[in-house]
Amino acid sequence: MSKHIPEKVSNRLTLYHSIMVEYIENGLDTISSPQIAQRLGIDDSQVRKDFKLLNNAGKCRVGYLVKDLKDSIEKTLGFAHAKDAFIVGSGHLGLALAKYDNFNSYGLNILALFDNDPQKVDMQVNNKQIFHISKLPNLAKRLEVDIAILTVPRQNAQQVADFLINSKIKYIWNFTPAVLKVPPEVKVWNENIMGSFLQFACKDIIQED
Amino acid sequence: MSKHIPEKVSNRLTLYHSIMVEYIENGLDTISSPQIAQRLGIDDSQVRKDFKLLNNAGKCRVGYLVKDLKDSIEKTLGFAHAKDAFIVGSGHLGLALAKYDNFNSYGLNILALFDNDPQKVDMQVNNKQIFHISKLPNLAKRLEVDIAILTVPRQNAQQVADFLINSKIKYIWNFTPAVLKVPPEVKVWNENIMGSFLQFACKDIIQED
DNA sequence: AAATAATTGTGAAATAAATCACAAAAAATA
DNA sequence: TATTTTTTGTGATTTATTTCACAATTATTT
User: Fold this and answer.
1) Which chain B residue has its CA at the smallest distance from A97's CA?
2) Among A193, A94, A173, which Cα is nearest to B18's?
3) Contact B18/A202, CB-based, under 8 Å?
4) Which of A75, A208, B16, B54 could form a disulfide with B72 if both were Cys (CB 3.0 to 4.6 A apart)?
5) CB distance A2–B93 less than 8 Å?
């Protein structure tokens, strides 16, 4: 099925997923669209339309089965297919991500970290080794890894990205504020942390008419 | 002016901003909408419409002045108004954010960190002190801080959020995967790191028809 | 000086997303 | 059993966003 999930929908699905995890922890079996909508401050019909996309039917007057919803969200978002990735840049952000065990439960498997600082090389973080960046091309080939999480300083971002592209990396999850130049076959996802903050700030904090 | 900047626009503005920084570093004075559009894989008329929103006129056959654009983006996104914030949770993510000096240049001023681990209390990170969480209410009041960056483990997220709300925190930038329950006067921005990844993954990596 | 090419600015059209409104279903209550 | 209430599912409407198309402008070339 070539069902295309729009970005906004998949973002909501992850929020629904968190709520399902919470409901399961609290031993609740069912949930209704108004309950979810109120929690997220959105319209309840939107929740139902999103669930329709998952082919997940609810029951009138009862709601949806929490367990079923959680499963279909995971299936739809591809949590099931584990994907291997490297973290490139073992600064604080890289290390934080390496320790972020949520990745694992969401199907992203960090195999190793890389850095160019000899001091860091051979350290272990959360059972993952830090390698010198020069080892990346070989390891990527041998382990068939084509996803890199880029957490180097902005100044080095493009140069390191070029190196990754030469190493046949096809997907770059870019945590640096640089806007990378890449060939069309390489996909970049800009995490843009400051961007999120500014959206937050613009919408709600500033506002002087 | 009560010009409302939609989320999608402000997200693009931050990307434009990064490109402007890069152009300035490379000594380039002007930039055209097709140049930017190609870089970001979007339509060039959209770039122009975004700039229109900034009241930033370009010059036919030449483009826009990079410096002017950077300034108006900063003015529009409120980079100029420094805002003070606390980081709550001094785990790896909290520490990484404390060291992320970009915050500062974008107008977000981290004053201090908090944790409940006595081992961490009184440590210094990037010239910012880690305080015991019990000190937060007083410091928030004295320093008039109403923004908190929440980086505690998911299990503690709601409980800590409740504590923050009692301490008169009004804006929570939530890096945990928990969906927080808050009263209407408190604004939450969910960073949802995994969400971004899954959007990335759904759009480009999976895709088995 | 005229022709050419690149670029802006913007209305119109197309696409996408969110909200509304309500019939149908089914649990709870009287 | 009949009535009430809650909730789903969805077509219609509205709103927002993106793309298209092109006139107007202006630097560059001939």
Assistant:
1) B93
2) A193
3) no
4) B54
5) no
Tens of pLDDT, residue by residue over A52-87, are 999 999 999 999 999 999 999 988 887 667 889 999
Q: What is the pTM of this model?
A: 0.90
Which residues have CB under 8 Å from B29's CB, separation 6+?
Answer: B65, B66, B67
Per DSSP, A133 falls in state G
CB contact under 8 Å between B95 and A92, yes or no, is yes
In this predicted model, what pLDDT tens digit does every residue of A143-175 receive, in sequence order?
999 999 999 999 999 999 999 999 999 999 999
Q: A60 to chain B nearest CA, in Å? A: 25
Q: Which amino acid is at A207?
A: Q
User: What distance in Å separates the CA atoms of residue A163 and residue A123, rounded to the nearest whole number?
Assistant: 22
C-alpha span between B161 and B172 (Å, rounded): 8
The overall average pLDDT reported for chain B is 90
Is the shortest CB-to-strand distance from A41 to strand C under 7 Å?
no
- Residue of A7, A8, A14, A180 best to disrupt the B interface, most CBs of B under 10 A: A14
Q: Do residue A10 and residue B199 have CB atoms under 8 angstroms apart?
A: yes
